[in-house]
Design brief:
Helices cover about 35% and strands about 20% of the residues. Strands 1, 4, 5, 6, 7, 8, 9 and 10 form an eight-stranded mixed sheet that branches. Helix 4 runs parallel beside helix 5, helix 12 packs parallel to helix 14 and helix 15 packs across helix 17. It has three domains: about 230 residues, 2-enoyl-CoA Hydratase, Chain A, domain 1; about 190 residues, 2-enoyl-CoA Hydratase, Chain A, domain 1 (Alpha-Beta Complex); about 35 residues, no CATH class. The chain has 20 helices and 18 strands. The longest helix has 17 residues.
């Protein structure tokens, strides 16, 4: 006697589960320009590497039918490295969880935490339904037992121990939206995704406002407010960005990111750097071109470009080693730190601190943004939090002073024991020259026969005192350098830092910040 009949039943259930919501629902998904969750997983992962958990989870019907769990979950590999990947199946209940789907989705973080591997979530769907996970007419126990482990505990544990990357690939609302942003990197597609606390019908009923999904939570909204770190042109782009993001990070906090082979010489000296910063201190320049000249070629992966534009944050490589990168874009607010920019800087610092990535900071910081709008946005609170994140950072830190370094905000660009290099173009102090002259010489300027001429004269005099050489003489920096020396000197510093990195493995906890 064999178990052939039961094995055939296993195969039938698995086949039905892979049929998802049925041919009609799958066709609607395609017609809406979106992949289904299994196609997304296959696109994200290395070929043939997906190993599903709960392949036949679902609900059997009395007539022999079968409704699969509408969350697909399992292990796979990205560039040969193991990860956990999961996502809602929108073809069943529009991604709103059924009982087995809910269990699998909640298990995703626990699986990644237990096996200490990165987690990727591919979101498309809603949260809970007024009818409950079991659907209309179902009855049973109400609520979770009083001793139930909080659902979001494992979400927090995952963020503290393994890289988490998420994508919004269609409408995402409620619980999936909360999990989407509970990530180290979140991306949404430009045309097909919306991220919503609640959808238009709920908003209309509660607030009496009629707003479409796109205006409520489309890419134009969330790409600019920091809800997501990037906006992708399509699903393929979103999944490629996730693959690339994870390549800079270790598997977990107990490891370091592997160094990769690099054919870009560490001693490379870019002639461009000698003229990158204009002698006219009022003339803007392109910090990203400087980053490209110093980092390994084509290695910079920017995070959060759509918001807080005065600050540049991202990941890169130098001599094959993964690093976090900070910079200023003087083409926006002269590079000043806004509330949004401060939040972006803090997130990058905390990411590097959590996963032990060395930080490279390229400074052209005039200070916190000023004015009525800056005060209304609580810039000082968010800016101070970024400064404290830098002050408590344990990751190795190197700072390249490129041009301006003023005010309290400059402290967000210098970690403890930072290796500090200054270019000859540097100016620094408590206040930028223009503001400092206005404060210190306001009465003298007002009494002058030609106030504007006197102001300009004083500003020239003060500017002449901003040379970096007194700092060099005072050993207030490690060296004033030829800008062309930046890449080789930073590469050498990374070699020195290997022993420090080895001692940082393990979870990192942060103190209270404003």
């Amino acid at each position: 006697m064999s178990w052939d009949e039961e094995v055939r039943e296993i195969e039938r259930r698995r086949r039905l589960a892979k049929g998802m919501g049925g041919s009609a629902a799958l066709e609607r998904q395609r017609a809406n320009g979106r992949l289904n969750v299994r196609e997304r997983i296959d696109t994200l992962l290395d070929a043939q590497s997906f190993r599903e958990h709960g392949p036949s989870a679902g609900v059997s019907e009395p007539d022999g039918g079968f409704t699969p769990a509408n969350y697909v979950l399992g292990f796979g590999r990205i560039d040969g490295r193991l990860c956990v990947v999961g996502g809602e199946d929108f073809t069943v209940r529009g991604g709103s969880p059924n009982p087995a789907g809910l269990r699998k989705s909640v298990y995703a973080e626990e699986l990644a935490v237990h096996y200490r591997v990165p987690l990727v979530r591919l979101h498309e769907g809603g949260g809970g339904s007024v009818t409950g996970a079991a659907g209309k007419g179902a009855s049973g126990p109400v609520g979770e037992p009083v001793n139930h482990r909080p659902r979001f505990r494992s979400v927090a544990e995952a963020l503290a121990t393994v890289p988490v990357a998420s994508a919004a690939l269609g409408p995402v609302a409620g619980l999936p939206a909360a999990r989407l942003v509970a990530s180290h990197f979140a991306v949404m597609t430009r045309e097909t995704a919306q991220i919503l606390i609640a959808g238009p019908s709920v908003v209309e009923r509660a607030l009496g406002a009629t707003i479409g999904k796109e205006d409520l939570g489309g890419a134009e909204v969330h790409g600019r407010n920091g809800t997501v770190d990037a906006v992708a042109e399509d699903e393929a782009d979103a999944l490629l960005q996730i693959r690339r993001f994870l390549s800079y990070l270790p598997q977990n906090v107990w490891e370091l990111t592997p160094r990769i082979a690099c054919d870009d010489p560490a001693e490379r000296r870019e002639e461009y750097l000698l003229r990158a910063v204009p002698r006219d201190r009022r003339q803007a320049f392109d910090m990203r071109k400087i980053l490209a000249a110093v980092l390994d070629r084509a290695s910079f992966f920017e995070v959060g470009r759509g918001y807080g534009p005065g600050q540049i944050t991202g990941l890169g490589r130098l001599a094959g080693r993964a690093v976090g990168v900070l910079g200023n874009d003087c083409r926006f607010y002269a590079g000043a730190m806004t509330a949004a920019g401060a939040r972006k800087v803090r997130r990058l610092i905390e990411l590097c601190d959590t996963f032990h990535l060395p930080v490279l900071s390229f400074v052209d910081e005039p200070g916190f943004m000023i004015g009525a709008e800056a005060e209304a946005e609580a810039t000082i609170r968010f800016g101070t939090a970024a400064v404290l994140a830098a002050a408590e950072c344990t990751a190795p830190w190197a700072t390249v002073m490129v041009r301006k370094a003023y005010g309290v905000a400059q402290a967000a660009h210098f970690g403890p024991d930072a290796y500090v290099l200054a270019w000859p173009s540097v100016e620094s102090g408590a206040l930028p020259v223009e503001g400092g002259v206005a404060v210190a010489f306001g009465r003298e300027i007002a009494k002058a026969a030609d106030p504007e001429a006197r102001r300009a004269e004083l500003e020239r005099e003060m500017s002449a005192r901003l040379s970096p050489f007194p700092r060099d003489e005072s050993f207030a920096v490690h060296a004033v350098i030829d800008p062309r020396e930046t890449r080789p000197m930073l590469a050498e510093w990374l070699e020195w830092s290997e022993g420090v990195l080895a001692g940082l493995k393990g979870p990192r906890r942060f103190g209270y910040r404003p």
